[in-house]
Amino acid sequence: NGFIETTRGRVGIQTISLEEESAGIVEQRAGETVYRLDRQGIPLVEVATDASLQDGEHARETAEAIGLVLRNTGRMQRGIGSIRQDLNVSIAQGARVEIKGVQELKNIPKIIENEVARQVSLLELRKLLTRKPASQEQKIVNVTKLFEKTENKMLKQIIIQGGVVLATRLQALDGLLKRELAPGKTLGSEIADYARAASGLRGLIHSDEDPAKYALSREYALLSQATACAAGDAWAVTAGGKHSVELALNAAASRARLLRERVLEETRRAEGEVSVFMRPLPGAARMYPETDASPARVDKKNFESIKIVSVADERKRLLEMGLNFELAERMLSSQQKQLFEKLVASTRNGGKHAGFIAFTLLETLVALKREGFETRALGEKVLKSIFDSFASGEIVRAGVPELLKTLCGNPEAGVGKAVAEGGLHRVSGKELEALAAGFRGKQNAFELVMRGHRLRVDADELKKILEKK
Predict the structure, then answer these.
(1) Do 156 and 74 reside in the same domain of the chain?
(2) 177 and 234 Cβ atoms separated by less than 8 Å
(3) What is the pLDDT of residue 157?
């Protein structure tokens, strides 16, 4: 009965599960898969919503809201990949497809839109193909001899190394393999994904592709006859070790036949704004969730002991601290939020200067990093010293970026030494009055003083001095 509030109503939270990270696939090649084990077993928290999400933008908003709640606990890892979204998409007459590993929130609407387009295209293909005669006959043909004098360097090398070139007919798909299912995704590439998942082989070539692209103009003319293609049929060809090639072509032919039957339930992997096939969606035979740990019941006492701070309340608190709306929104999801809270709490008059601290973390440091400064050298201790110096009136706001630049190169120097060597000590009081006296009466006195002393003079204090009669 959990839920999260969104601008389009409540979204139900079905489960919160503790899981373990799996070993990630680094590379797949023929007969071999390479995994990385450095993240295996790392605890993960999975939060699953119900099916009340209305469209891609609503899914993005909900994922962002869940992420903000998690980050607001202060107990989760931050950075790219620390939160990943798995999207379940289905349409009427289509199938449920799980798209795994979406890391960029901004891509969610487009990924969902493209998956809907893919399934709609597959439904249209099914209608088209069911009007054509079907045959269950499927034969893989060894066409290595056709390629013995090929100009394609990759195929030539495979043959020299003892590999084979095999081909198969794809019934009634002539002209359809180049058909776009979704932006950047053709039917041919969809079938090639199945072949690659089954065998690890890349490089499935089909008859709708430009033969000049592969230097195969002569072979294209012969492959239709070799694979016994009738009018309207297509063919696919690939090369490598015999077993791997057979796996690839059997998978390709099987996927082509199933186009007539239904949209398939699949697990897919997000790649930018599209997705690629990984494996069939697990069925009822798979035990899920895993049964090695019983569900943990949260009783009323435990639940009431949890302090829940809503995103809306946290946003309101940041605004009340002096952050403008844009800074508050960015801080809610920033990796710097915990550091911000520590600096506000530990810096002299930190609450009074919270807006400036936030601006420095989210704007100034980012700008310096783009300019090539090593901002990682500026730890919490150094930043606290800088803000303490600002709060006590030793330096002015405009001088902070220059001080940061100096300390990026030598953080061990200390703020006091960097201020002295950089000539950044604030000019104020009688010293500023004496400086301003030389410009009093001039029409542009304020601009003239600031032009030469911007990094050492507080603008508001100077205005007050110049306004005195």
Answers:
(1) no
(2) yes
(3) 95
11 and 80 belong to one structural domain: yes
Residue 281: what pLDDT? 86
For residue 179, the model assigns a pLDDT of 97
In a domain, 354, yes or no: yes
pLDDT at residue number 377: 87
Rounded to a whole number of angstroms, the distance between the first and last alpha carbons of the chain is: 69
List of residues 6+ apart from 109 with CB closer than 8 A: 55, 56, 57, 59, 60
Residues of the chain under the 70 pLDDT cut = 30-31, 77-81, 136, 283-294, 469
Going by C-alpha positions, the residue among 51, 50, 259, 242 that lies closest to residue 165 is 242
| Number of domain units in the chain | 3
pLDDT digits (tens, 9 = 90+) for 32-82: 888 999 888 888 889 999 999 999 999 999 999 998 888 877 777 666 567
Strand partners, 166: 142, 238
How far is residue 388 CA from its own chain's centroid? 37
Give the dihedral of Cα atoms 416, 420, 422, 428; nearest 10 deg. 100
Nearest to 463 by CA among 452, 455, 396, 440: 440
Same domain, 334 and 357: yes
pLDDT for the residue numbered 449: 87
Containing structural domain, residue 363 = 311-426
How far apart CA 451 and CA 350 sit, in angstroms, is 29
